[in-house]
Description:
heterodimer; A: mainly alpha; 76% helix; B: alpha+beta; 4-stranded antiparallel sheet; 6 helices; 7 strands
Amino acid sequence: xxxxxxxxxxxxxDGDVDAYALLVARYRDRLGRYAVHMLGDAGDAEEVLQxxxxxGFRSLRRCEDPERFGAWLFRILVNRCRTAGGxxxxxxxxxxxxxxxxxxxxxxxPEDRSAWREEIELALxxxxxxxxxxxxxxxxEELSYEEISAMTGVGISALKMRVKRACDRLRALLxxxxxV
Amino acid sequence: MIERVAAELRxxxxxxxxxxxxxxxxxxxxEARAMRAPLAVRxxxxxxxxxxxxxxxxxxxxxxxxxxxxxALVAVGFGMRLGGGPATEIVSNEAAGAGAPVAHAxxxxxxxxxxxxxxxxxxxxxxxxxxxxxVPGATPLVRAGTGGMWVVSVPLGPxxxxxxxxxxxxxxxxxxxxxxxxxxxxxxxxSVVTVGEHST
Lengths: 180, 200
């Protein structure tokens, strides 16, 4: 039977550092997925992911509810992505305004899954960072608005507006692709 | 459309994979070693890094005199509530060994570190940190004098400690006179104090 997050956290705090690897394996894919979509680059995402796990280990005693270690660590990751996203702002703007790249990524057949995936990621990169964050947390990570608000410090009304605008923008960008 | 997009984004196309786990755990083990390293070893690594190391809290003679007056008031008022907050036993190494009530167990080789926080309008101030499992209220400060100063002495073992002040039970505040902890991205700021082998 798999150990609960709380049981693993207690083992780590008792000195079994190797037990932390169980938490890394448990949450690496999900947190990595969010980081990649948020930052748009697998290398940057791995760097931020590693940073978040190390910070989580360093501050493990501050995890108030060890049974919900994953949610606590996710909050750390969201904040790290925000910091990394700020540093990468110039590179993101270059990507968004690269019309040549947009042309080359245009799909001939939207049912081609890898091309469709690429179109989605390009559209996601064109969202404002706050809208992208809210959209990913709400629709991809399927968190409630209350959970997202607690994680980001943003009010629920503002979050709903960000999600709505993100959805409207994504629809506009991707429906245009499907029409061609 | 949105659900199709979300479903596609949930597919693990860019999953970092188990190869990343090894790198993460190497970094975690390095962190664990750093957390266990005594101050003397860290301080000798380079003078440049020494300039960046957090410092122990050091009080000037004037501040010590003010605290001494405050401690005298506390000694007189021991067992009585001061300013609405709970009385706090001022702990020294000797008192800790003599069975005086303490909020947490003193570590071997612990040094009494004096923490001061100025909050004239506060009803209560406590200190939370890795030394008391971050439990608000476990280590309350007491008012010292009339200038809104709150004080407590906490026995800390040698090494690096993170802490914060909790004002009125809910507001977490860093120590304005101490370096900020790098890992304070949990919505609650914290500060760092490093206790040397021969700190006073």
